[in-house]
Amino acid sequence: MTSLSGSMLACKVHSNDPAIQCLEQALSRSSSSTIDYTPTLEKAMDDSYHVVYKGAIYILRHISPLHELFRPYEGMLIRASFPDFDNHVAPSMATVEGLYRRSQTLATIYRHISDVQTTFRTEAQVMAIVPPDLCECSLHMALIFTQVALQKTAKNSDDHNLLRYWKIRLLSVRAKLPGFEKDSNQVVTMCREMLALAPKGTVQALYPLQCYVESLLARFDSFHDAADLGESISLLQQCVNIEAYELRNCRVLLCDAHCRLFSSCGGADNLTFALSAIQYFLLAPLWDNEWHTINSQRLEKARALLAMIFQRQPVEQMQPQHGLALLEIYRGMVRLLYRMMEVGIDLHLGLLRLVPAQGLASEAFEHALLLSSPERAVEMLEKSRDVFWTQTLRLRSSFDGLPPHLAERLKSVTPKLESYIHNMYGTVWKGEENRYEQELGILRSTQDEFRLLAEQVRQLEGYGHFMADLFLVARRGRAERPSGHLCNVRNVH
After folding, report:
1. Its domain of life (predicted)?
2. Does 255 map to a domain?
């Protein structure tokens, strides 16, 4: 067990506080695996809780006048997170629930303090301001309260498992702090134990599996042991081919593991596996329904994974087979733009949806040229730039071949929808708020009618992708299923 004592004695904010000193002194008499929960320790925990709580509220309110970035802490954020901050009544320490709630409150304090620290560190607007003293004592104390709650709970009970996962979350956060990297070892151990307890081959086992893999990947970030990646890949490959929404995150984790392995170790085989994972487990049309309305996250993840790969090996240095795989990935990402747009959506909303794609067209174009594929470069550029025009073309379809009653209704609705969309986007509504609301209501009802008709068409045989992906459909068959060489990986180099 990672030690829960000593951490706050190094804090320049609280090290001289009598309550904190008493708490640390009481904890020092506990073993590394069990807290000796005495009346003295209980009082020290209670006193320290109030010290940290009141100090955090003071700091959050104190920084609000310093800059507009911190203004939400003046009231909105504090009231949302700490409704009774003016007269806080701490939950009872006599119950497990009370201990858990205190731990949650302390974790919330740490989250806000951490956000403030990040703002002072990264935002140029506030770098000239001298920040107040901020610390991690709230996180350390959250772990102490959690451990005591665990000791008071029957093992293998639902409450005990919930508290174990909560402790895993807290330790995972602390493991990212300098000097606490070894917490990741305990996180891995705890996650492995939770996975062993989960019923095999069930949906209930997915969450423990995901937690365990995430713990391995996090530990790899600290200690760079490729064995953690190898174990992650081996575990994930057992389930990622199954079509199920619950496995979406596992497929993303597999892509992560392969890309980290290449980024760390290099190697042609590792690059093949990394590119294949992105293509088949993240971008393939087979998984479209699982991403539904969050394809922007899918696109952002794919771009982040490629950036990781490019740090290790620039595009111009890739072998021909890797270049071809990369171009297929770009085609998959460009295809997502058409899914993100959605036929019949407002133009201004569509523009916002495409923010994650900023620079994608030029990047794909440039890399295709570097890979000596000018035709593909032009295709990428044209498809990326034709997203809005394609939506209009879809609305102007003839709808030939559809049952007459659906075709006629679509022919009636789509011209009106196109007109309303462009009218709402192209009109200056300043001073005409009432008319704007009326026109917006008409647009929304027309969009609803169009979506209902489109969904009815998709129920017909052969029309499952009606108004969906316009291009790459012909290539879908070979992009849907993962390649055999990826699914049958036995050795990780």
Report:
1. Eukaryota
2. no
Residue that terminates a domain, selected from 132, 152, 172: 152
Nearest to 168 by CA among 225, 116, 213, 137: 213
Which of 250, 237, 190, 180 shows the shortest CA–CA distance to 215? 190
* Domain boundaries, position 67: 1-152
Angle between helices 206-223 and 158-174 (to 10 degrees): 20
pLDDT 10s digits, 114-158: 999 999 999 999 988 988 888 999 999 999 999 999 999 998 899
Residue 232 inside a domain? The answer is no
Q: Which two tokens stand for residue 271?
A: 């690059």
Question: 169 Cβ partners below 8 Å, 6+ apart?
Answer: none
Closest by Cα among 166, 102, 111, 110 to 136: 110
For residue 257, which of 228, 295, 279 has the smallest C-alpha distance? 228
Q: How many domains would you assign to the chain?
A: 2
pLDDT tens digit sequence for 267-310? 999 999 999 999 999 999 999 889 988 999 999 999 999 999 99
Nearest residue to 315 via CA among 264, 275, 280, 258? 275
> How far does the chain reach from its first CA to its final CA, in angstroms?
32
Domain membership flag for residue 238: no
- Please tell me whether the overall predicted TM-score, pTM, comes out greater than 0.85 for this model: no
Residue 284 and residue 479 in contact, taking contact as beta carbons nearer than 8 Å: yes
CA–CA gap between residue 450 and residue 221 (Å, rounded): 48
Among candidate residues 104, 132, 152, the one where a domain is terminated: 152
Q: Who contacts 162 (Cβ-Cβ below 8 Å, separation ≥6)?
A: none
| Cα–Cα nearest to 406, from 343, 449, 448 | 449
Of the CA atoms within 13 Å of residue 474, those in its CB half-sphere come to 1
DSSP codes, 229-278: HHHHHHHHTTTTTS--GGGHHHHHHHHHHHHHHHHHH--HHHHHHHHHHI
Residue 37 lies in a domain: yes
Q: How many CB atoms lie within 10 A of CB 248?
A: 18
Q: State the DSSP code for 354.
A: T
- CA-closest candidate to residue 96, choices 161, 186, 190: 161
The radius of gyration computed from the CA coordinates of the chain, to the nearest angstrom, equals 28
Distance of CA 78 to the CA centre of its chain: 25
Handedness of CA 397, 401, 407, 408 (dihedral sign): positive
Q: Are 410 and 384 in contact (CB under 8 A)?
A: no
